[in-house]
């Protein structure tokens, strides 16, 4: 049995990834070009890496750590929000770039579909100089946000972190993060990096893009010939768990009426990793992930409620 993939290990979860400020605008119906569209707008903490860390803590992982990079103007706010969520942040403050910002346009109709306008800012300026192998002390699993691969400095950081983890025998997971940016990066470059992973958590669209196959199950199966464990997130269709070229299980979604689908995939990933570290099987962990995804879409923004907030 591969202990890094199928069994819990005593130790922390270290997430390396993006910390951004989300401006969530919920509107109903199409945007009115050239004039006003009424919307409910909120400014919230976000970022795929930070969201995963917060959802892992929310799911019960007792020691969640996060390495990220922010601008000076929002560093204190982001640190407070992460600590309040139960995460131990190590935020590098960028002296030259502002904190990354994402404008999330959310159609408040039945599908709650969202569109992102992304200014990565400081978040993807993480570089190898921001890494220390000591970050892995006491860590049982490393998770990398796929956004790291989309700029040269942060891709070099991801390669450094992956090599350090492999040298210590720490399993490494990655969420591809964005089908749009993935297409720009190039499938071959992504797959070359993925060869060093133990676990890949793509969305349905990302799995299909990475394999060129139209069926998510076929895509997950093919990816699992490259990465030992693949868990493909399929939204309202649940999740697929694949290993060694075979889909082992189809985990159903938890029904939910969505308000905002921002961060649903991050919620799945965080809860999945927390369950895996606690000793769950991949199928059990995927069920936990589906539950967290359902909780996420009922909320506005990409984070879980703070512990004890009653939210």
Shape call: globular
Average pLDDT, all residues: 92
| Strand percent estimate | 25-35%
Counting structural domains, the number is 1
Which regions are unreliable across 5 or more consecutive residues at pLDDT < 50? Answer: 1-8
Question: Which CATH C-level class is it?
Answer: Alpha Beta
Cα(first) to Cα(last) distance is: 40 Å
Widest sheet: strand order? 5-4-1-8-9-10-11-12-13
Elements, N to C (H/E): HEEEHEHEEEEHEHHEHHEEEHH
Question: What portion of residues is helical?
Answer: 25-40%
Rounded Rg = 18 Å
Query: Could you state the CATH homologous superfamily?
Result: Ribokinase
CATH architecture classification name:
3-Layer(aba) Sandwich
